[in-house]
Amino acid sequence: MAAPQALFLLCFFLPGALLSEAAKILTVSLIGGSHYLLMDQVSQILQDHGHNVTLFQQEGLSLLSDFKEEKKTYQIIKWLPPEDYKKEFMKYFDFFIEESFHGRGTFEKYLKLMEQLGIHCSHLLRRRDIVDSLKNENFELVVVETFDYCPFLIAEKLGKPFVSILPSSFGPVDFGLPSPLSYVPTFHSLLTDRMDFWGRMKNLLMFFGFSMKQRQIHSQYDNTIREHFPEGSRPVLSQLLQKAELWFVNSDFAFDFARPLLPNTVYVGGLMAKPIKPVPQDLENFIAKFGDSGFILVSMGSMLSTYQTQEIIKEMNSAFAHLPQGVIWRYKHSHWPKDVQLAANVKIVDWLPQSDLLAHSSIRLFVTHGGQNSIMEAIQHGVPMVGIPLFGDQPENLLRVEAKNLGVSVQINQLKARTLALKMKQVIEEKRYKSAAMAASIIRRSHPLSPSQRLVGWINHILQTGGGAHLKPYAFQQPWHEQYLLDVFLFLLGITLGSIWL
Asked: Which residues are the signal sequence here (predicted)?
């Protein structure tokens, strides 16, 4: 059999061959927005591949104001937090987002948000009826998502093996990967993998700060752990992260800087991809009006219509008016400022088929907030980007977009109509951006296995082998001074100094 044919058959039949029998799997989604959408997709993929999946979902904090829930083929268990807590959390969350949009987001404010999530976790674990119900289901595996650390504590409470989904690129969470600081940027350093001397100096110093911040974040769950786990068996969050059998990362080699990975770390960027369907006729008619000029797609995430200020809307609308392309902009009609005249070449819609539009032959540019799922979709279809980062991992994501020539970014506090219009014309007219986007698309599409096949195949492997101990380095069990050979260096230093003295 020819090698290409053999490879095709391997890729096609491997997931089915690995799956010997259906397993009971619990997926946990306690945060809304794109985090829920990702876990919904993971749950559906596992269900479609023969497993019996139950999603433990929180109600009341969806963070998706226009979300319409569809009927699922997997099971759902819902939990509603206390009303007073829900109001308190949403009040602080709104404040945090508003501060971030105005450039006033600080680590201390983020820490306060994590404190709220720690309190939320305590409310959940106090519900003995829910915890006991989950225990009685006797799940074989738990799949958790890494933003809130409560799902890790749920898995520990159930005493079940778990795998983790990292919804972003590497950086926000330290789970034990080798991170040579000479070319692996520390989160929030805004460095690439190509650092000069001062870049490496900055990266080293920021690494120490990042480590301290990680400990502060973990400490927000200390009270929860003390309340709900008996003394002598209380988990340490940093060790609990390393306990995961697998780490699935919602990114791809086409986007991330190359770096060392452990055997239990698997890229699955592109899980959200769905089969392309024709664009609705009203949008097709709008696109046709602009002929060869094509159109620009604008989608700034699920929450921007709620939190965006009028000044930003005016500047963006004015920038679009200076372009020959049509602009399809996802923005709620009900939130549009009444004193802003919509530009003639702009069409706003409450909802749009983002992936289908990105696959359209007439698209020229994608204006995005830099969310991980949106960037993965743009790379999938080879569309260059102009990014306007808002908070979280978005500045880091768009740094990678710029480093790989996939587009450019504009800081929201520097957003002016002229600047944005020039940036968009630059990306549309300079062919290097489209060429880089198409090259990234080829890398993204040419994996031997699809993201879904990698997800299912590796989970089946863990289920069949009884865990992922064989995929983890012994370093996870070593004290830090042994990992970094400090005891060896100290011994050699003593021998050297003793020899010199003698």
From this structure: 1-22
- The torsion angles phi and psi of 237, rounded to 5 degrees, stand at -55, -40
Supply 343's token pair.
């530009």
Amino acid identity of residue 412, one-letter, is: I
Instruction: Count the Cβ atoms, other than its own, within 10 Å of residue 89.
Output: 18
Average pLDDT over residues 246-270: 94
Instruction: Show the beta-strand stretches assigned E in 301-419.
Output: 326-330, 346-349, 363-368, 385-387, 407-409
Which CATH number is associated with domain 281-445? 3.40.50.2000
Radius of gyration of the chain (CA): 24
pLDDT tens digits along 301-320: 766 555 557 788 899 999 99
Question: Which CATH topology does 15-273+450-477 take?
Answer: Rossmann fold (3.40.50)
CB 170 within 8 A of CB 259: yes
| Range 7-28 average pLDDT | 62
- What is the identity of the amino acid at 119? I
* β-bridge pairing 346-349 and 326-330: parallel
- Three-state SS at 353: coil
Exposure of 96 in the CB half-sphere (CA atoms within 13 A): 20
pLDDT at 450: 93
Condensed to tens digits (0 to 9), the pLDDT of residues 164-216 reads 999 988 878 888 899 999 999 999 899 999 999 999 999 999 999 999 999 99
3-state SS, residue 91: helix
CA distance 124 to 146: 17
pLDDT in tens, 119-145: 989 999 999 999 999 999 999 999 999
Q: How many CB atoms lie within 10 A of CB 206?
A: 19
Give me the residue spans of the domains in the chain: 15-273+450-477, 281-445
As a whole number of angstroms, the distance between CA 358 and CA 283 comes to: 13
Q: What is the percent of the chain where pLDDT is above 90?
A: 67
Distance CA(195)–CA(202), nearest Å, equals 9
User: Which residues, other chains included, contact 88 with Cβ-Cβ below 8 Å and sequence gap of 6+?
Assistant: 116
Residue 55 banded pLDDT, cuts 50, 70, 90 = very high
Residue among 374, 370, 367 at smallest CA distance from 392: 370
